[in-house]
Amino acid sequence: MSCKQITNILLNLFYPLDFESTSNKYESLFNNLIKEKSHLLISSIQVSEFINRCIRIQFKLYQNAIRSLMMVLAK
Predict the structure, then answer these.
(1) CB atoms inside a 10 Å sphere around CB 12
(2) Could you tell me if 50 and 43 are in contact, meaning their C-beta atoms sit under 8 angstroms apart?
(3) pLDDT band, very low/low/confident/very high, at 24 (cuts 50, 70, 90)
(4) Which DSSP letter does residue 17 get?
């Protein structure tokens, strides 16, 4: 599994953008792993990529909010 795939799974689990989604295959898998007391190994590169993606997503949301605010104020 590539670093990008693992990062996407981590984003889906710990930084969901769609809070309405209730059925999540990754969440079921993760809950099963926890229930079985399995150990998960994640490299520092994967953690770094996850944090980087979270920051980029949040910055994009911030930019869109500022852009919307500027459009309202310009009217």
Answers:
(1) 17
(2) no
(3) confident
(4) S
The reported pLDDT for the residue numbered 52 is: 95
Distance (Å, whole) CA 42 – CA 26 = 16
Whether 20 and 62 have beta carbons less than 8 Å apart is answered as no
Q: Is the pLDDT of residue 19 over 70?
A: no
Residues 34/22, Cβ–Cβ less than 8 Å:
no
Mean pLDDT confidence for 56-68 = 94
- The token duo for 63 is 């930019």
| Cα distance between residue 44 and residue 70, in whole Å | 39
Range of the domain at 29: 3-74
Q: Check if the beta carbon of residue 7 is closer than 8 Å to that of residue 53.
A: yes
Q: Read off the tokens for 37.
A: 């007391």
The total number of structural domains that make up the chain: 1
